[in-house]
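Hi Y.,

Following your request, here is the sequence exactly as I used it, all 220 residues.
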Amino acid sequence: MVKKDKPCKKCTCSIISKLVPNNDLITIIDQAGNRILNLRFVNYDASTCNATFLTVTGGLQLYNCNTIQVVAIQTGSACPCSSAILNAQGSSFANSGVTTIVPPLTNQALGGTAFICNNCSQDSSTFNVQVSSVAFPFSFTSTSIQSISCLDENSRLVVTGIGTATGSISGTFTYELQMSENPPPNGSLTITIRDLGGTVVFQTAPFSPGIGTPISVTPC
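Below is the corresponding structure, written out as tokens. Let me know if you'd prefer a different format.
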């Protein structure tokens, strides 16, 4: 007798099949390398290998377990949190000495605004960045928030979403913004932008938002 392959053959399928609905906060990494945070497991269909998750914004997202690289129970706050850069200029940041990993450049000038409110509403949150580099100039603005979470004992906020860019990169991209209270006194920002295929097109090393503009992360 010919033995048939199991349709749900990845080890992540086995992990997902054992998750308890609406229990832990889940992070997954898909086949493109995108990290999706702050998900709640809803159900799993072994006949189709499809798992349904609830996003922090209240929508349902379907994933085939064979396309998931990593499934992990998330640590940190189990609800949305907020983060802001505390200054009189409306949560703005500016740094002319930023190191970028993609493309590999040093002393890049970045400026923008980063304020993430605790209800995950794009209408109330703001994230944009302008890169004033001769080698790689562009502007990016968030248009949609997908997930948000507080990590590292509620000292670091990670938000993912979708936005649009003009300049050296142009079109629609996904992003991950990390806002951390560490290192003191001002904390740090880390920005990663990917194309819709999951390829990183821009990534910074952690950088200070600027002198006198500390980052604050507030759990809900």
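The chain has a mean pLDDT of 84.

Thanks again,
Q.
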